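FAQ: What does the model actually see?

It sees only this:
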Amino acid sequence: MKNIELIFSFRDWRNGCNLLEKLGHNDECIMSDRFELSLEDWQLELLTFELNHLDIEFDLQTINK
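And it is asked to produce this:
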C-alpha cells in the first residue's frame, strides 16, 4: 500500500474530485484540489490511467508516514 498526495491543477480540480468519487476514493464528495490517499499498486495504476485518459492535470507525491 502506498500513501500518496494527489494534487489537481486549478483548471481540473472539479473533474478530478468527480473522478475520485466515481472510483470510490471520495465517498464524502469532498471538493478540494488535494487528497491524501492510501492505494494498492493496481489502484494507483488505474487512477493514473483514468486521469491521463481524461486529460486531467495532476501531480502525485509519495507521503512517508
